[in-house]
Every structure is written in structure tokens, then in C-alpha cells.
Amino acid sequence: DSVRSVAISADGKTVVSGSFDNTIKVWNLATGQLLRTLEGNSWWIDSVAISADGKTVVSGSSDTDIRVWPLN
């Protein structure tokens, strides 16, 4: 589905994307490989951010929900 938001980790190795399919996808930036999919939102993802240490993703969705996701 359409991507609403992307964020790149501080080390430039990881990208996360949030989309209309209610998921966050974690990608290897160098290879483009999908590393994992984070599921559990009931609405589409409007925004994503990666913590400075690269261990956490925070998402905001259209149901006004904010979630914290571990990346490790």
C-alpha cells in the first residue's frame, strides 16, 4: 500500500516506512532487503521515527495512537 512516512537511522543503515496497510516495514538501506514487518496498528501509519541509538521506532497513526516498537 502507499507509504505515508519514512525515517533513516542515524548510522544510515536502516530505513523504516509506515503505510496505509497499517504496518511498519524495516529495510536494509544498502541492499533494499526487507528485514521485518511490524504489525498491530488498527489504522494506517502517518509518521515514523527512529531513536538516535537505532533500537526503537515510534509511530503515530490515524486513530491518534502512538506506539513504541523495539527494533532488536
From TrEMBL:
It comes from the Bacteria. WD repeats lie at residues 1-37, 38-72. SMART domains: WD40. InterPro entries: WD40/YVTN_repeat-like_dom_sf, WD40_repeat_CS, WD40_repeat_dom_sf, WD40_rpt. Keywords: Repeat, WD repeat. The keyword Repeat applies. PANTHER family: WD REPEAT DOMAIN 5B, WD40 REPEAT PROTEIN. This is WD-repeat protein. It comes from Crocosphaera watsonii WH 0003.
